[in-house]
Write a structure and sequence with these properties.
Elements (H helix, E strand, L loop, with lengths): L1 H20 L11 H16 L3 H14 L1 H14 L5 H7 L5 H9 L5 H13 L5 H33 L4 H12 L3 H24 L3 H18 L4 H14 L5 H36 L1
Amino acid sequence: MENAKQSKSEEQQNIDNELQNSKNSEADIAKSHGEILKQQIVEGQETYDKNPISILLSSLTAGLEIGFSYLLICSLYFFLNGKFAEDTIFSAMAFVYPVGFIMVILGQSILFTEQTSLLTLPVLNKKRSISSLLKLWGLVILGNLIGGYLIAFLLVWFGPQLNIFDLQTIEKIALHVTQYNNIVILVSSILAGWLMGLLSWLVAASKDTLSRIVIIFMITAVLGFTGLHHSIVGNVEVFAGLISSPAISILDYIYFIALSLFGNALGGFVFVALLKYRAFVYEAKG
């Protein structure tokens, strides 16, 4: 038993040494796997060390800012409705879907899906506990959801007043998000979480703001074009439908938000954090 513990301790020490020895690349050289992982772990630990009120407010800000994607989605649908086929309009939303994400990520507000893999890395590296991760996830989700509720209430009132979209548009978008069965929504959310975790990794690998904007646009446009379920944008879409249309029930909302949050977390954790961390561990062993 003691030999096993000593072996695990030595393995962890080797991993920490490899991360410590990862040097910053020159400006014209791509970052190595170890450099990106070290940056992600350090940034993740900094988030754990923040004041809980600061985390909640930053998360709430992200929930509000992601609403600008929803504002443009509704406005585009209303503008193109009757001029193009509905499936063409939903595909065209990929061009405006990334706007809120660019605001959130470059503004460094805390978004659950973008932070999911980042926050699990210190746990995998044995620097933070699972209970601290769950507590932090809870704060981030709470802030994101409250921010989404606030912006949804505002836009449901504001859009028709400004005549940039109507309540029928809100209903159509909410139904488009929730029309699938639970298994489809779950798998879709896992894929979306995978992409968002990859987005966090690629943003860490990039060296300038323009590259980050291109990466954010590229990944989130895939989400928008394919209709993969993102829990925080979807929260605004479905909640807005809930408060403005009898076609969306409270059960529709609860099922959607539970499945999408779980799927996004699972996708970000398994396909990005765990696999990339384990790949580095085996590299360190070799």
